[in-house]
Amino acid sequence: MDFAEYFNSHQEEMIQLLKKIVSQESPSTDKKAVDRCSAFLIKEFRKLGAKITCFPQPHIGDLYLVEYLPQESDPKKEQVLILTHLDTVWPVGKIKEMPFHIKGKKVYGPGVLDMKAGLVMVFFALKALKEKGMLPKKKIVIFINSAEEIGSKDSYRVIQRLARKSSFALCLEPSLPGGNLKMQRKGRLVLRLEAHGKAAHGGTPEMGVNAIEELVGQFRLLNKLRAKGTTVNIGVIQGGEKSNIVPQDAWALLDIRFWKSSQKQKILDFFEHLTPSLEGARVKFTIESYTPPMEKTDASWKLFRKIRKIGYSLNMALEGGKTGGGSDASIVANMGIPTVDGLGPDGVGIHAENEHLFRPSLIKRATLLTQLLIHL
After folding, report:
1. What is the CATH number of domain 3-186+293-375?
2. Is residue 361 within 8 Å of residue 179, measured between CB atoms?
3. pTM reported for the whole predicted model
4. N or C, which end of the chain is more exposed by having fewer CB within 10 Å?
C-alpha cells in the first residue's frame, strides 16, 4: 500500500487540521486553554470511532487516552503506546506575534513542531487505516499529555501504567535535524532553590540579611556541577519587594540536565550540602519535577533496527542520535520498554520564535508511522 500517495493527496487537509490545532493555543500552565484545545482534538478522534478516556485534572489540563481497535480485530491484541502532547511553551496571545503561515516548504507557528504536527500525523495515520480498511498489527493507544513541557506526576503515573501493558512505545516528538531518531535523552531535574534572610530598612542594610545576595552567592557554586555533560540553567529568579527594603526571601528555578540516572543522586547530594555564606541566612531546595534520562538499551535499539529497515523500504535512511532535551519517552524507556523517539517531522526552532517544520517531512513521517503500525 502506497501511503505516501494517500498523504500527498490529503496534504491540504493535514495542513488545515494543523492550523486549527496551532490556533487553539495551549500553554502548559493555562488549564482552560489546554482543555479547549484538547476538546477540539478529541472531537476529531471520535469521528474515527476511537475510544476516548479522560483523566480529569484539577490544576493542569485534563489528560486523554485515545484507543483505536477496529471491532473485527482481537480485543486481546497486544498494544503499542504512542506518546504525544499538545501543551506548548507559548502563552496565549503569542499567535498574534507568531501567526500560523506557510513560506515555501516551511510551516510556522507556536507549537507547530513541538509537537502539534505529531498529533496531526497520528490522526491521519488512523484515518488512512480506517479508510483503506486495513488492520493495525497491534491495538493503538495514544496518550495525549497536557503538561509535558513542565512535567506532571499525574501524567507520569498514567504513562507508566500504560507502558506496563505495551509491547513498545513510539514518541512523536520532532526528529533530530535531518530526520534522525532520538535514542538517548538527558534526564531533567527542576529544582527550586530558596534563600531566606531578614528584612530591614534599605538605609540600614547591616540590620538585615539580604536573601538575594545569599541566593546569588549560591549561584557561583553551581559551576561545580557543570561537568561530564551536566548542564545547569537558572531559568527563573524572584525576590524582594521594594528597592528600600532588604529582601527577606528569594528563590530561583534551576533546570539541570544529565545523561545517566546515577548522576541524579550526586546532584541532589550537592544541594543537600549547600551552606549559607551570610550569617543569619538559610538555604533550602525542593524538587519541582524529575524526568529520567533515556539511556541506551538493547531493547530500544532492537526496535530501532526494525524501524530503520522499514524506513529503508520507503527510501528513508534513519540513524539514531541523542539530544539534551527531555520527553515522556524517557519515562517509558527507563522502565525497560523498547522505545524510539523523534518520529515526528523535521524542523527548526523548538521553543524559539522561528519554530517551523519542513512540510515534505510531515508527509514522509506520516507515511513511516502508518507503515510501522501495520508491520511492527
Report:
1. 3.40.630.10
2. yes
3. 0.89
4. N
